[in-house]
Amino acid sequence: MEFRKNLNMLPRYQRNVEKKDTEFESKLLDLARVTRVTAGGRHFRFRAVMVIGNKAGKVGVGVAKGSDVAQAVEKATRSAKKNLIEVPILEDTIPHEILAKHSSARVLLKPQRKGRGLVAGGTVRVICNLVGIKNISSKILGRTRNKLNNARATIKALKSLRIKKIEGKKEKKS
C-alpha cells in the first residue's frame, strides 16, 4: 500500500508544499516600513526587496509588501523567482562593458581579467555575487542611493548582455 498522496487529489493550496527548491540562494536587499495615511489613521506595512540567484547565471529581483516582515520577505522571494533572468558569463566575467539606466539610477559594468575580483559596491555587489560573476568592475553613476532602482538598473544591464558568435567570417550577435 502506497502512502504517498497523489498531488492531483490535494487542494490547490497544498500542492506546492511538497516541492521545495533550495538551489537558489536569497539575500534581503532592502526592508522599509511604508505608511498609508487614511481618515482612520496611519496604516504601516513593510516593503521587502529580495534578490535570488543560483551562482550559475540565473538571478532575479522581487519586491513585495506585507503586513509583517516575514510575509513581505516571503512574497518578495516568490516574486523574485518569477522574474528570473539568464546572464551570459564568460570566464567568470561578463562578455562586454555595459551601461544601463532605470529611473534616476545609472549603472556601469565592466569585465575584468581573472583574479581581479568583485569590485562593486552595495546593490551591484550582491547581485553579481548571486549570479556567479567573480571578476567585474562596476560603478553606480546615478545620484540616487535607492537600492531598488540600483538593483533594477543592474538587472537591466545584465539582461542586455550578448555573446558574439563567430561563424566562418560572419559575426552574429545572439
Compact overview of the structure:
This protein is α+β, with helices and mostly antiparallel strands and 174 residues long. The chain is built from four helices and ten strands.
What keyword list fits this structure?
174 residues; alpha+beta; Ribosomal Protein S5, domain 2; four-stranded antiparallel beta sheet; 4 helices; 10 strands; 24% helix; globular
Report on the architecture of this protein:
The chain has two domains: 20-85, 2-Layer Sandwich (Double Stranded RNA Binding Domain), CATH 3.30.160.20; 88-160, Ribosomal Protein S5, domain 2, CATH 3.30.230. The chain starts with 11 loop residues before the first helix and ends with a strand. The protein has helices at residues 12-15, 69-82, 122-131, 147-159, and strands at 25-38, 41-53, 58-66, 85-86, 98-102, 105-111, 118-119, 136-140, 164-167, 170-173. The mean pLDDT is 89. Helix 3 links the parallel strand 7 (118-119) and strand 8. The protein is α+β, with helices and mostly antiparallel strands and 174 residues long. The strands form three sheets. Strands 1-2-3-4 form a four-stranded antiparallel β-sheet, with helices on both faces. A four-stranded mixed β-sheet has the order 5-6-8-7. The chain is globular, with a radius of gyration of 20 Å. It has four helices and ten strands.
One letter per element, helices H and strands E, the order comes to HEEEHEEEEHEHEE
The number of helical elements comes to 4
Got a strand count? 10
Classify the helix fraction into a percent range.
10-25%
Average pLDDT confidence is: 89
What characterizes the major β-sheet?
Answer: 4 strands, antiparallel
CATH fold type of the largest domain: Ribosomal Protein S5, domain 2
**CATH class membership of the largest domain:** Alpha Beta
Count of the domains: 2
> What is the CA-atom radius of gyration, in angstroms?
20 Å
In the CATH hierarchy, the architecture of the largest domain is 2-Layer Sandwich
Gross morphology:
globular
Beta strand %: 35-45%
Low-confidence stretches: none
Query: Strand order, biggest sheet?
Result: 1-2-3-4
